[in-house]
Specification:
single chain; 674 residues; alpha+beta; Leucine-rich repeat, LRR (right-handed beta-alpha superhelix); Methylamine Dehydrogenase, Chain H; 6-stranded mixed beta sheet; 6-stranded antiparallel beta sheet; 9 helices; 32% strand; globular; chromatin regulator
């Protein structure tokens, strides 16, 4: 019988607690604990645990499924630990102590520095700079050596048309050879080097040789996935833990590399043509993972669920997240079908999964709330809002694995949601009922009680598809791309009028060249404080236009029809398919948009933005071609190639390190910038 019980955990909490989910600090030292005493089911209830002391026990390893999503400080000194790799399950860990474990060596120090991206202190020493070197410089050099070893000794051994048995054989030989022959750093770290070389080599082979759908053999069937209804009050409905997610990884069987910049009709001109070798050298992003994690009923045969929205988790201003090395979150929330997933872009791990069997999720958005946690202490937490076909907004405290409430916002489906960048509790919901509502979602107390209220209703003439707050005045103006036009509203809350019509309707050139206000706008985003990117009436064209030159904020109120001041047009696919939306990366001056063939069109506009900022900046005469097109790789599912892949959405993290691509075939593709 395990030595650890609920009563013991409550008693050893600091201070003592009456509920497991309230415990933030726990002292389990000097209890003669063995690995088998750490019951994952019991520990999974410690949702808020941040500090854990397991020193002076008899642990020889950590179980792989201790669900402690908020753990920041861990002390496991004076045990019998033989391996540290299981610690990767605590990605937020900032301080780790494991002194006086006789079997651990400096090789293990380097392993945890690589595995734990937020780690600052190891055995009381600041390892920030060294860890950065281990994760970047060391990895880059080893990757170069592994690649060179393959090219020199193994590439020519594999026939162009090869069997699965031949792949298996050469993989075995290569892994053995590369671990023996690739040497780097001092001999005292040879074990760590072999460990990283094997990891890098396996990733290299997965990309280069290609495999069919690879199902994690350790994946278990889900526990109870039924949704507990909750409404503006605390009702527990935990998200699924990562190890419970039925995740299928897709890897390419053969990858097409193409970086051509198409001219009219998608034909390359002589000046744009390049050889395969040149194209390969010019690749700026490589595919990391292909995930099938939104399947209905967890079916591995589901290649029909549409994926719609994704957004990267914001960084919290606390602890290791202040470290400039941790420049951007690598966790992304995705939605489609009945589920919302949280994915680690680097590892491809599905960290969390939240399901509502009767829902189809269309949109997700993050905000950071400062919540009172205990003893009147305040702490920042990221909250995820998810909405879709039922017209209901789900509010999820991700670190606590807890959907703490819902807002019945509309009677018809919600197309998109977004939070105000200046008012963290203000949420906009755009619905098929032809209304955009502004809500104050409130701040939940320590028992997750909260009160939501509606502040504004913006009246729309057609269904709103995309919304964007104006960066220079996010509390005053909102733009919406709709089924029948592009509109702007004054959203300032000092006005008495709660229900408001639009203040401006924008005109754009139609297919015949004349100006029109009647056109579907299914893509809308700001590239910077002034430049708007929108996809609308003309097939094969994305417009860039100026907010300040199109809309006079000092003008009189009332409804106005205004001509959008076009700065440039981006060359894009000639498809007439709708709802293939676009996104921007303002920090890097990039625009992204997928097409009907599974390709991602990327535009680096840094050479244009300075001219556009000038009041006398003229419109670019010619359409701007894409800087690069990422082609969809040939993926196989059940022995057959996935066909007719539409790219519904493409989003990069703020620093353009990762690119997340959502498709019409239930596949999330993650690319990483080289």
């Amino acid at each position: 019988m395990s030595k650890i019980t609920t009563e013991l955990l409550l008693e050893r909490a600091v201070p003592r607690s009456t509920r497991l989910r309230k415990i933030e600090t726990l002292n389990l030292s000097k209890l003669q604990l063995k690995t088998g005493d750490l019951d994952p089911r019991l520990f999974s209830r410690l949702r808020h645990l941040q500090k854990l002391d397991l020193s002076d026990n008899l642990l020889d390893k950590f179980p792989n499924s201790l669900t402690l999503p908020d753990l920041r400080v861990l002390n496991c000194s004076n045990n019998k630990l033989e391996d540290v790799t299981a610690l990767k399950q605590f990605p937020l860990l900032e301080e780790l102590t494991y002194e006086n474990n006789a079997h651990l060596t400096p090789n293990d120090d380097y392993k945890v520095m690589f595995l734990l991206q937020n780690l600052r202190l190891l055995n009381g020493k600041d390892i920030t700079k060294l860890a950065k070197h281990v994760r970047s410089v060391n990895s880059r050099k080893l990757t170069s050596k592994v690649t060179a070893h393959w090219e020199k000794f193994f590439r020519d051994q594999l026939p162009e048309k090869h069997t699965a048995e031949q792949v298996k054989s050469i993989k075995k030989k290569f892994l053995k050879s590369v671990q023996t022959n690739v040497v780097h750093g001092p001999s005292s770290l040879s074990e760590f080097t072999r460990w990283r070389v094997k990891m890098i080599a396996e990733e290299f082979l997965a990309r280069s040789l290609g495999l069919e759908l690879n199902t994690d053999p350790e994946t278990d069937e889900k526990a109870d996935e039924s949704e507990e209804e909750s409404e503006e009050e605390s009702t527990e409905s935990p998200m699924e833990a990562a190890e419970e997610v039925d995740q299928v990884t897709v890897t390419p069987s053969k990858r097409k590399r193409s970086n051509s910049k198409p001219g009219s009709g998608n034909k390359r001109s002589k000046s744009q043509a390049s050889t395969e070798e040149e194209a390969a050298e010019d690749v700026s992003a490589e595919p990391l993972h292909f995930l099938q994690c939104h399947s209905k009923g967890n079916s591995r045969e589901d290649f029909k669920t549409q994926l719609w929205s994704c957004v990267f988790e914001p960084l919290l201003d606390s602890g290791a997240r202040k470290d400039p090395i941790v420049s951007s979150s690598r966790t992304v929330a995705t939605c489609g079908g009945e589920s919302v997933c949280l994915i680690d872009c680097e590892t491809g791990t599905v960290l969390k999964k939240y399901k509502v069997a009767t829902e189809e999720f269309f949109s997700v958005a993050w905000t950071t709330l400062t919540m009172v946690i205990s003893n009147s202490r305040k702490k920042s937490h990221n909250i995820l809002a998810a909405a879709g076909r039922r017209g209901i907004v789900k509010l999820i405290h991700v670190a606590a694995d807890f959907c703490y409430g819902e807002i019945k916002a509309h009677k018809k489906p919600i197309a998109t949601v977004c939070f105000s960048p200046t008012q963290e509790t203000h949420l906009f919901t755009a619905s098929y009922d032809k209304r955009i509502a502004l809500w104050d979602i409130g701040i939940p107390d320590c028992e997750y009680n909260f009160k939501a209220s509606q502040l504004l209703v913006l009246e729309v003439l057609s269904i709103p598809l995309r919304i964007a707050l104006v960066p220079t005045c996010p509390e005053q103006y909102l733009l919406a791309g709709c089924e029948d036009g592009c509109f702007a509203w004054n959203i300032k809350l000092d006005k008495e009028q709660k229900n408001r019509p639009s203040e401006a309707t924008f005109q754009f050139p139609g297919e015949d060249g004349s100006l029109t206000t009647s056109h579907r706008v299914d893509g809308l985003a700001f590239l910077n404080d002034d430049v708007i990117v929108s996809k609308s009436s003309k097939p094969g064209c994305i417009y860039l236009w100026s907010w300040s030159r199109s809309f006079d904020t000092k003008g009189k109120g009332g409804q106005r029809t205004l001509s959008a001041v076009i700065l440039a047009e981006l060359e894009w696919s000639l498809t007439d398919l709708s709802y293939l939306t676009l996104s921007t990366c303002p920090a890097k001056d990039y625009v992204f948009c997928g097409d009907e063939n599974g390709s991602v069109w990327m535009y680096n506009l840094s050479s244009y933005t300075a001219a556009w900022r000038s009041a006398k900046g003229k419109r670019s005469d010619k359409r701007i071609p894409p800087t690069q097109i990422l082609q969809w790789p040939e993926l196989q599912a059940n022995g057959e190639q996935l066909a007719e892949v539409l790219i519904n959405n493409v989003v990069s993290d703020p620093t353009f390190t990762y690119l997340v691509v959502l498709t019409s075939v239930n596949v999330t593709a993650i690319w990483k910038k080289s």
